[in-house]
């Protein structure tokens, strides 16, 4: 049955048609009983579930926020980037959907296999370059006549921008994005077979008064090793692994061998700036600690014990007298 919810007007119209004989209830039941045949295009194989697409959308919503912050700081103008859509389509369809001449950044994401494309609409790319060179962010589209200086500026800017992908993907994989190619003609990019399924995340982008799209194309081969991490079960998993007794003993032994800095406070005092500036060799600074008073012993700069100074085998030492009773749970 269809999951579509009928409005009250549609329900009334249906009841009216049944009551007047315009529609036969038995025929409706027969139609429902018949097998529903759904056309399946093997060229558009759906290799990701809706759940996994939603997870990728959430990840790239975070990436969009990071890009907004990055470009706002770099360009010193109004920047707004947000996820418009996330779809899985054949690679050939993605290539056909983007302009014939555009800005294509191809980067690897080791340790994952394959390469990812970030396609930036020329209007957006030129607005960025104009801002970097001190302009108002005017948008032009002369990608066919890209100069070496413009290419270098774009290359450097997008190379730094994709660094934010590392943080956005940190929940599913530790990647190290590396920009490997900068291209303007998509026909020269044949990363995977034409029928290979890719996920395309489209980002609505506004730079000052210019607007356009940034498309991120991720082939299935890149995501294949981390597909299990894109499911709800992975995100909602709360079960914790129990620590085995032998592991606990090993952990305790290693912790006991850990070295921590211990210091004894001989005392403190306060002096004025004028007194500090007039200090000379031989001057004596009086502390607020009496000689017969016990000293505070600190572990990692946190008061833990009370002790008294002395000597041990010719070295300065301190004897622990009691634990420090200085306050709350942190001092225990």
Automatic annotation (TrEMBL):
<dbReference type="InterPro" id="IPR001543">
    <property type="entry name" value="FliN-like_C"/>
</dbReference>
<comment type="similarity">
    <text>Belongs to the FliM family.</text>
</comment>
<dbReference type="Pfam" id="PF02154">
    <property type="entry name" value="FliM"/>
</dbReference>
<protein>
    <recommendedName>
        <fullName>Flagellar motor switch protein FliM</fullName>
    </recommendedName>
</protein>
<keyword id="KW-0282">Flagellum</keyword>
<keyword id="KW-0145">Chemotaxis</keyword>
<keyword id="KW-0283">Flagellar rotation</keyword>
<dbReference type="InterPro" id="IPR036429">
    <property type="entry name" value="SpoA-like_sf"/>
</dbReference>
<keyword id="KW-0969">Cilium</keyword>
<keyword id="KW-0975">Bacterial flagellum</keyword>
<dbReference type="InterPro" id="IPR028976">
    <property type="entry name" value="CheC-like_sf"/>
</dbReference>
<feature type="domain" description="Flagellar motor switch protein FliN-like C-terminal">
    <location>
        <begin position="254"/>
        <end position="322"/>
    </location>
</feature>
<keyword id="KW-1003">Cell membrane</keyword>
<dbReference type="Pfam" id="PF01052">
    <property type="entry name" value="FliMN_C"/>
</dbReference>
<dbReference type="InterPro" id="IPR001689">
    <property type="entry name" value="Flag_FliM"/>
</dbReference>
<comment type="function">
    <text>One of the proteins that forms a switch complex that is proposed to be located at the base of the basal body. This complex interacts with chemotaxis proteins (such as CheY) in addition to contacting components of the motor that determine the direction of flagellar rotation.</text>
</comment>
<keyword id="KW-0966">Cell projection</keyword>
<keyword id="KW-0472">Membrane</keyword>
